[in-house]
Amino acid sequence: RNQDADEDVTEDPTEVHADVADDAPTTCTSDEECDDGDMCNGLETCSTEGECETDPETVVSCPGPESLCEPLACVPDTGECEPTYAEAGTPCEDDSDLCTEDVCDGAGACTHPDDDCDDDDDCTMDSCDTTTGCVNELITGCCNEDGDCDDSDPCTDDSCRSVGTCSHVAADCDDSDACTVDGCDSETGCTHETLDCDDSNDCTSETCDTTAGCEYTFLTDTSCDDGDPCTDGDACDDSGHCVSGTVLPTWYRDSDGDGYGDAGDTTCASTAPSGYVADDTDCCDSETDVHPTQTTYFCSSFTCAGSSTPSWDYNCGGADIQRWDETGGCSTYGGGCYLWRAGWGGGSVPACGVTADYITGCSMSTGTCRTVTESRCQECR
């Protein structure tokens, strides 16, 4: 804090004078009798009237200090002006900063310690502005009592801490009942829902003790469900486990009614349900003519439900089997015309479903051995 350097000063601070000793003799017979031993008081002589007189021109006058904390003073033994130290706390040069106090440190230096702006109020933010001084700004949300901290939430316990800030601790909703699930609703406050002790086990009986919580009793020889639809007669053992019963046979859906089922569409039961069979070897359960024991050949392909690719695999064998897979022809011998093998003409076997000439016999016409053919479709299965 800035202080006026000349506050409470009654003398001119620019000049320091020595005082004449009060115990100097008033009458004398010689100059030596007038000397008070203080060289700062000037030259003392004995006048003709027998009185001690001081020559004012010889009194030591020390110039004013360059620093208020280190003023000059006359030393009696030497009559010289030497620096002295102002008492600690003495006001000194103003640094124009209202956030500091300008005081001597007792060792000749002018110091500027920070002002203490603490107003002992936990709800203010204490700071300092160099041009206006201390600033004590109110802290938003700060409290002085518990009522200042109400957050309107029944799930918190609100209080004002000693540092002036609000505390919102989760409310203790424990009802000391092991058979309830304790929680809190921000609208209604603490909640206590009944504990669900169901362990989804057919082989246990569930109860709840308010101290111990859920308790379970094993139900021996009681019917249960092991979760497998293909077992029958499941029962509980004496350790609370469901033991599987008899395994039921598996049945396969026969959608096309050809006596062969789809391996990917199953069910289990003690007897075959309607529309199901025991055989799972049908490779297309949407076509009656398609099954593993098919021996008939067909001139047209089929497309199984769920597929867009035509197929000739009527017997589910995994390959297309042609009914007629050889070429045929005629030959001459001894002047005669003979069929050496019935088969396809043109030297190649047509693909499934393709119609071509099939050689069935031979004839001699005008000296030439000729083939006898019929138009035939290549059948496959």
Structure report:
The chain is mostly beta strands and 381 residues long. The chain is built from no helices and 28 strands. The chain has strands at residues 15-17, 44-46, 52-54, 61-63, 72-75, 80-83, 103-104, 110-111, 124-129, 133-138, 156-160, 166-170, 180-185, 189-194, 204-209, 213-218, 231-232, 235-236, 242-243, 246-247, 250-253, 266-268, 276-277, 329-333, 336-341, 343-344, 355-365, 368-377. The strands form 13 sheets. The protein has a three-stranded antiparallel β-sheet, with no helix packed on it. A hairpin with a 5-residue loop joins strand 7 and strand 8 (110-111). Mean pLDDT is 89; it is low at 1-21.
Strand order of the largest sheet: 22-21-23
Strand content: 25-35%
Distance between the termini: 114 Å
Instruction: Note the overall shape.
Output: elongated
Determine the fraction of residues in helical runs and give it as a percent range.
under 10%
The whole-angstrom Rg is: 63 Å
What is the tally of helical segments? 0
Largest sheet: 3 strands, antiparallel
pLDDT averaged over residues: 89
* Number of β-strand runs: 28
Give the class from helix and strand content and strand pairing.
mainly beta
SSE order: EEEEEEEEEEEEEEEEEEEEEEEEEEEE
Low-confidence stretches: 1-21
Chain-wise SSE layout:
Layout: E1 15-17, E2 44-46, E3 52-54, E4 61-63, E5 72-75, E6 80-83, E7 103-104, E8 110-111, E9 124-129, E10 133-138, E11 156-160, E12 166-170, E13 180-185, E14 189-194, E15 204-209, E16 213-218, E17 231-232, E18 235-236, E19 242-243, E20 246-247, E21 250-253, E22 266-268, E23 276-277, E24 329-333, E25 336-341, E26 343-344, E27 355-365, E28 368-377
Antiparallel strand pairs: 1-4, 2-3, 5-6, 7-8, 9-10, 11-12, 13-14, 15-16, 17-20, 18-19, 21-22, 21-23, 24-25, 26-27, 27-28
